[in-house]
Every structure is written in C-alpha cells, then in structure tokens.
Amino acid sequence: MNTVSRRETCLICGVMLVVMAAAAETRQGDPDFYQWIDSAQGRNASLAQMKRHCDQVLAPDKNLNCSVTVLARMFETKAANQLPDYYLAIKRRHAQAIANDPELQQLFSMFGRESIATLRQVADFSLTRSPRREVLPIHPSPNDGHETNEVLPYLDVKAANGVSARFILDTGAPQTRVNSETAKQMGIKLLTDSDYGYSTFYGERDLAAKLGILESLKIGASEFRNVLVFVSDRDNLLGLDLIGKLGRLNITKKTLEINAGAPTRCDSPVTFVRIDINQRLTLAARLDRRATVAIIDTGNVDYLTSASPGASPVHVIDKPNHLIFKGELSLSGRARLIAYKYYPDFTIPPSMLLGQYVSSILLGWRAFNDYELNLDIASGLSCFNRV
Fold this sequence. Notes:
Blueprint: H1 3-6, H2 14-25, H3 31-37, H4 40-43, H5 47-55, H6 60-76, H7 83-93, H8 95-99, H9 102-107, H10 113-120, E1 126-128, E2 134-137, E3 154-159, E4 164-169, E5 177-179, H11 180-185, E6 189-198, E7 207-219, E8 222-232, E9 237-238, H12 240-243, E10 249-251, E11 255-258, E12 268-275, E13 278-287, E14 290-296, E15 304-306, E16 313-314, E17 323-331, E18 334-342, E19 351-353, E20 356-358, E21 360-363, E22 371-375, E23 382-386
Parallel strand pairs: 4-9, 5-8, 14-21, 15-18
Antiparallel strand pairs: 1-8, 2-11, 3-4, 3-7, 6-7, 7-8, 10-11, 10-22, 12-13, 12-23, 13-14, 13-17, 15-21, 16-17, 17-18, 19-20, 22-23
Helix pairs in contact: 2-6, 5-6, 6-7
C-alpha cells in the first residue's frame, strides 16, 4: 500500500482554510469579534451568540471574515440544518466580494439546490454518551485478515442499519471522513450536488469530497445522530470533531477508554487549538534544541515527522520521498535521541508558541509505543504521558 496515500490524515479544508487564514490576519484590525471569540465566553458561545456578535461588525470585509468563522463553527458543531440559510445569506450579502475572489467563489459553490433542500430537512445533531466506563479495542489494520505494513489505530464503528466498519482513530483529522463504498453500505444520505475541495498536511492539493448525512454512528455505547460527514475515495477517518465530543478519554496503543479516570500525573499538557474548522491537539516540545509545537496525530504512521530538515541526515537511498535525520527530541524536559522524517513536498503548518509562529512536528502513532493520551477537551485538562 502506498505510504503517502495512507498518510493523508488531515482535512485542512482547502478553500475554507485559505479564507479563514485571511480572517486571522485581520484580528488586530477588528478586535471586538475576535477578542471575544478567543475569550472563555466566546469559546463556549452558542451559534446564535456568534451570529449576533458578527452582525455587529459593520465593515464589509471584516463582516465577511467573521461570517465565514461562524460558518466554520457550524461545521464543527455538526449543525447541518443551520448551514443552508446562513450560507445563502452570506452569499447574498457579499455577492460582489465573492465574485471577485476565486477562493470565495469555490467556497460559496459548495452546495447546490438539492443539497440546500436536504440540509434543511435534517434533524438536529445529537450525542448520547456512554453512561459507563468502556474499554474498546484498537486494531492494527482495517480488517483482521488484511495484510498491511502500516500499523494504524482502527476502531470499530456501527451505523443505524447495523453495518460496521473500521475507521482510523485520527486526532490529526479535524473532520470525520467516510470512504465512498462505506458510505453506500452505511446508508449515508449523500448530497450529490455538493462539492468540497480540500488539501492535506502532506502537500496534496485540489482533492475532492462531497458531504453526506449519517443517521447514526455508534462508538461503543455512545451514539451520534444526524452527523454531517465528508465522503471521498480515501480511508475512513474518525476525526477530532467526533473524538473530542466523547468525553474524557484515554488512548493507548491497544485501547480507547471512554469515561476514563483522571490522570494521576501530567507529563506534557495538551492544548486544544481551534483555528475555525481546523482543530489540533498541540504541546510544547524541543527538536534539536529548538522550541517547536508538536501536533498529536494518531493518523500519522511515523513516530515523528518534522516541518523542516534537521542537521544530521541519515543516508537512505531507497526512500526517495523523504529524508531521515538524527536528532534530539525533548518533551517536558526529558530528552531522547531519535530518528525522524522530513518530507520535502509536504506542508505541515506552523503553530503559535509564546506569541510567535513556529514550525510544527507531528507525533504519530508509533510514538504511542512510549506515550498515551489523556484527552478531555471539555475541561481543558488533557495530557500526553509517558507509558
């Protein structure tokens, strides 16, 4: 199996992210909305509250930026039935700006008439969490009889019609994605005239997906209903949009524990970073004695992938798509020598650390030989601990 295709783990959401990156650049010029959205009140605000605050932004370009931010939050919260009217209202209000910008044109061509009509009829998204502690097995492959040299964390999930499939438990994917064939088997209502362009952390561009509505998705005893998902020809991914809603979790090499106990220690505090639709789990690290940000990406097969090359290359002649370097990785003051990969054609985005943008590294699934993740997004108390 091709390593690059398997490593496609993160829906950066193409055009939408380009627009929202522009929105981030305008935050200093329009502090009221973005200072509020970054506050504790704004982070926990309802969609109605977000809309009201954005409506108070009168400058057309800044109103367009905050409107796209609200639209992105609708995707994150799976508010499928609220998307059509708000989407069309932005399209009407900012018709000229959209017509003059190719990225905006593509973004606001996402839904056709049939998609709009279908979305309006979708019932509210809901989640019924498991009332008890559950320990679900993590499988190393898509199916027990499937041969692969790329071990990733696969989790069994079930649809309303009883069909089960294995999804990669992918903390590096902001949005859940379903393979086209799996979507048919699970009875996903496909929005046939939807058109969603996206890119990946790994340098792939102009990838296409459609959207669909999954009536029910069960993970153990927890059930998501009326779930907005992305449908493409790639692997099934259970993204951070759903993982983060399951409550307090403990992710180890072999199990996903739901309603886990609080960790007794916190070696490396984990920060949940939301850049509109692009969500990340990050922690402070040092690579080759330089401060950086580590993104915890369980959908990445490598132990460590760097956004920039190191100083000590290892000569490898049979791996033309990446370079290997020897270096020193430090987490929470503990340093270890490590071999890590750098892919010249891939584009891991920078992150914020101490108010400055720095290059990122990805801690992938092989790192879970040494670490486990205690995840509790709602409380803000998440940790990456040595095993």
